[in-house]
User: Which sequence fits this backbone?
């Protein structure tokens, strides 16, 4: 395989959390029997700025891959059923916003099937139509502004993240297992959707087949070496608001290839169950599906003590309850100890067993494989005045503190000059982690990107 660029970053941070999953990929089991979820849900909660139109009602029987809702702003952007069965209910939140649609899974699921489509002979319009009707358009993100991809805009480049660097990351080799042919079809499909190149960024040692029009790159360094913003900044930076770049994860590229090759919506995913909140030995990597219930994932591996369930990794995920489901784009269930009270006089202790990115504790001067973390913030929100901690963990050519302040002031022209077009909310997970001011930067950046996008684009 010809590697076009060997990238390296030095800024960043690998958070040494206890409870990282290890071992081989295996089947979910409890008490020696396979775990089969009775209910699987389509999670719509991440799309809080979207207006949906329902296509089903409680009691309807649906097939796996059947459209359940579509985006009123772009009707061809449909969200399909992750399972075949009966719609249990339509769960809504504030102002009747759609949250998720749980489906009681049939023993023998019916599946929506299309005829195979060869991307080497199909037109761009035919490919986009198949991706849209197959329910995969919502899995493609668009830069700048980190929006859902708009098929009416031809991307300058497409970036595929074949590297995972965050906490509890799933090895790409596991995600690729048994899907080499699907990935080949997926890359060929994406090559026909861009006027530029398809960039695949990976760790050294991942073996992929050479393909015309596909640029393979390796990257080294700590997290966020696996984030799309890092790859775009190093290889083909976005400089203008009217540029369009698409980003996908490796499983999403595989799913596109699987859809065109077999005509079916791929719901199988590798799931990581991780975190110190589980009893030791109960974490690992498992065969799973999109939208799995938390109860099924924890069956036979009940957590210890008072814990918090997180759909996604601890840096970017969201809290869920035991009766909840994995999020739309999530393949990790993290469980960490919940601490509801402050630790008395913790600032007087040496902190040999506490992680410190700023070396505030003595442990910051020593290297240790992993540390115990809980949900305690160790302080309240305070003045936002020190910028140096953020710059040490962000490899992008931006000043994180000034950019966040510009967004808070709604000075979007100034924010654009400070790098707003180059970022996504996930890029501020590490700054928020090391932030002594305890500011929710990801939420601020997400709101700023959405508001500015609404002003200057028609893609929101």
Assistant:
């Amino acid at each position: 395989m010809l590697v076009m660029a060997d990238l390296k970053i030095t800024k960043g941070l690998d958070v040494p959390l206890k409870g990282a999953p290890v071992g081989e990929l295996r089947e979910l089991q409890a008490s020696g029997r396979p775990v089969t979820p009775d209910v699987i849900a389509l999670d719509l909660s991440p799309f809080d700025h979207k207006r949906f139109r329902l296509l089903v009602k409680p009691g309807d029987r649906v097939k796996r891959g059947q459209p359940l809702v579509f985006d009123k702003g772009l009707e061809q952007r449909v969200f399909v059923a992750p399972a075949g069965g009966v719609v249990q209910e339509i769960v809504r939140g504030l102002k009747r916003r759609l949250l998720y649609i749980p489906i009681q899974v049939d023993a023998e699921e019916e599946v929506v099937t299309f005829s195979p489509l060869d991307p080497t002979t199909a037109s761009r319009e035919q490919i986009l139509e198949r991706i849209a009707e197959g329910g995969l358009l919502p899995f493609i993100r668009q830069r700048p502004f980190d929006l859902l991809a708009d098929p009416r805009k031809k991307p300058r480049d497409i970036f595929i993240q074949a590297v995972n660097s965050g906490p509890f990351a799933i090895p790409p080799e596991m995600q690729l297992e048994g899907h080499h042919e699907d990935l080949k079809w997926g890359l060929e499909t994406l090559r026909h959707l861009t006027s530029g190149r398809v960039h695949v960024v990976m760790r050294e040692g991942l073996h992929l087949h050479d393909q015309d029009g596909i640029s393979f790159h390796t990257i080294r360094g700590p997290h966020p070496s696996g984030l799309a913003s890092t790859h775009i900044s190093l290889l083909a930076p976005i400089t203008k608001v009217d540029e369009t770049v698409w980003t996908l994860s490796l499983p999403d590229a595989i799913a596109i290839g699987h859809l065109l090759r077999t005509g079916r919506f791929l719901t199988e995913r590798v799931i990581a169950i991780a975190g110190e909140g589980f009893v030791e030995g109960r974490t690992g990597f498992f065969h799973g599906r999109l939208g799995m219930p938390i109860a099924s994932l924890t069956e036979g591996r009940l957590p210890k003590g008072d814990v918090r369930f997180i759909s996604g990794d601890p840096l970017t995920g969201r809290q869920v309850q035991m009766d909840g489901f994995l999020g739309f784009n999530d393949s990790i269930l993290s469980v960490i100890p919940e601490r509801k009270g402050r630790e008395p006089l913790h600032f007087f202790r040496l902190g040999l067993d506490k992680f410190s990115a700023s070396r505030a504790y003595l442990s910051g001067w020593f290297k240790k494989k992993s540390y115990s973390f809980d949900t305690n913030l160790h302080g309240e929100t305070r003045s936002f005045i020190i910028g140096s901690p953020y710059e040490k963990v962000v490899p992008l050519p931006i000043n994180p503190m000034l950019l966040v302040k510009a967004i808070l002031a709604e000075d979007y022209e100034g924010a654009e000059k400070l790098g707003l077009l180059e970022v996504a909310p996930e890029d501020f997970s590490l700054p928020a982690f090391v932030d002594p001011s305890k500011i929710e930067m990801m939420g601020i950046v997400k709101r700023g990107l959405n508001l500015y996008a609404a002003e200057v684009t028609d893609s929101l």
Remarks:
- The chain has a mean pLDDT of 90.
- The longest helix spans residues 441-456.
